[in-house]
Amino acid sequence: MTGGDERYNAAGRLRGSVYDAEMERLQEQLVLLQYWIQSQGLKVLVIFEGRGSAGKGGVIKRITERTSPRTVRIAALPKPTERERSQWYFQRYVEHLPSAGEMVLFDRSWYNRSNVEWVMGFCTEDEHQEFLRSCPEFERMLVRSGTVVLKYWFSVSAEEQLRRFEARNAEPLKRWKLSEMDLAERELYVRYSMAKDTTFQYTDIKQAPWYVVPSDDKRAARLNCISHLLSQFDYEDVAPPPVELPEIRDIPYVRPPMHEQTFVPQLF
């Protein structure tokens, strides 16, 4: 309930000022977590799944906004090639898994098989059933090998998804976000619900459980997800102290004339 809570506006959504202040604090903590992951040699895999427009991309952007791409990187794979389609299903994902000292954020993952591919008929029923059998074992193997596996499902209502799709359609600068797959997903909303429920039935395992993030309020969803992510680590502040900047060495050298270089027009 948000009644009487000044953090929320009249529509029950988190106020921007509250969001901005808390996001700044959380992003500072993400940087500290980054240093901790590096120092401890942790291997961290974070999977983000959910319906189109549920807010996966937004939270990934906020997580990476102030962290180093050398430590916190994004894996967002395109459609598989013909060669990849002939491989073991998990094979193309394995090369993107984290090494020691890394956190990898999967913007969609191998769960394409039990959601998009199954609903749209891009895989056979046998392939779907084999995924549901093998995925839990694959993830247990990752955990046994020392990889921290966190799985977040961003859950958006049919009404809010429609509102977001309509907003994208009305704004030319955002229309590229509204793909044919989004249109199909809207039409097959119930089938996607069935796919999600089946996915959870088989893959919500003790070693790598699903964490559901209600995301009708995007701001609250981002804060809740990042707060939970941080809470999964007993990290300490191991950020390096400020360094002493060296003086420029005095080396005899005459640079070529500036007018020989081509500069961009100074419009501002």
TrEMBL record:
EC number of this enzyme: 2.7.4.-
UniProt cross-references to Gene3D superfamilies, sorted A to Z: P-loop containing nucleotide triphosphate hydrolases
InterPro entries noted in UniProt: P-loop_NTPase, Polyphosphate_phosphotransfera, PPK2-related, PPK2_PA0141
Chain ranges of the Polyphosphate kinase-2-related domain: 17-238
Keyword entries, A-Z: Kinase, Transferase
Domain of life: Bacteria
GO MF term list: polyphosphate kinase activity
PANTHER family to which the protein is assigned, alphabetical: ADP-POLYPHOSPHATE PHOSPHOTRANSFERASE, POLYPHOSPHATE:AMP PHOSPHOTRANSFERASE-RELATED
Family, per entry: Belongs to the polyphosphate kinase 2 (PPK2) family. Class I subfamily.
Function: Uses inorganic polyphosphate (polyP) as a donor to convert GDP to GTP or ADP to ATP.
Subunit structure: Homotetramer.
Protein name: ADP/GDP-polyphosphate phosphotransferase
Species: Nocardioides pinisoli
